[in-house]
Amino acid sequence: MGQVSTSPLRLVTSEDRGVQLPKTKSPLVIESEAQLRAFLSGLSGVDAVGAEARAAKLATRSLKKSTKLAALDLAISMVDLTTLEGADTPGRVRSLCAKAARPDARDLDVPHAAAVCVYPDLVGVAREALGASPVKVAAVATAFPSGRASMNVKLLDVREAIEAGADEIDMVIDRGAFLSGRVGQVFDEIVAVKEVCGLVHLKVILETGELVTYDNARKASWLAMLGGADFIKTSTGKVATSATLPHALVMVEAVRDFAETTGRLVGVKVAGGIRTSKDALRYLVVVNETVGSAWLTPDLFRFGASSLLNDLLMQRLKQSRGTYVRADEFSAD
Predict the structure, then answer these.
(1) Which one of 61, 90, 139, 329 is at 20 to 30 Å from 100 when CA atoms are compared?
(2) Which of the four CATH numbers 3.20.20.70, 3.30.980.10, 3.60.10.10, 3.30.70.260 does domain 46-320 have?
(3) Known catalytic residues?
């Protein structure tokens, strides 16, 4: 049996986060591509064996029943309920928005999801369906999922999504540019997209499954944060290898180090292949044990998923009833 976690998972306020952060050091200023290259090259390498071993160890942690109940609600509140299929329709998006706003219509104590994530052309539908709901509208942009388009096309993609009512933009980096060493190009694109976003939150998708090494994942995390990302995100969910616990660990360590260096808090979003409550709770343990409760809030941690929400709801009912419930007790949206 795994070790029972002694560190409770809980939501925190901004005041709590301020107390837990180290004192701010001098701000990082990147003024040239040479300086950017030198900074990224100077980052410490990732001990791959150590990262995988630590992630595996954290995955064995068990949670006490009271902690697990709170963690399930927390995970629900962190879900970006996502539909990114070519066959998406306005009706499908409206159903998804209703599910995000009230995940279990029979139980008003169940928290709402964090956001609904759709393609840019369906943002207006989601915005209208959600109305004054606190659920955010997120849009994938910048030639999702490949990131292979001209800068003008990428920025137009972002502008149209924001004009339609998007609260958050999930952009993808050009992995080909990053892997071929054109880090300045990737940095400039992130800066340009963030400038268009303004106060709209920007999530930068690294596509860790295509970055080959953990060192690249760490460098891409820093590159995105230096460029102005409000969140760094593992994956598009459109490649064979999406989110993994070791990659999440590397990224959470990066946001911790970035906060210690600059005083700015950046969130992490894991996406792709996260389908069960057990998966979600493992990620929450990684966050809790790496950066503490400061990041255990939808403001700083998200799950990009579709089927995960129903499993969280099933496990929530199981905890209260003591028996497993049928999947068809919840809508398939």
Answers:
(1) 61
(2) 3.20.20.70
(3) 170, 233, 269
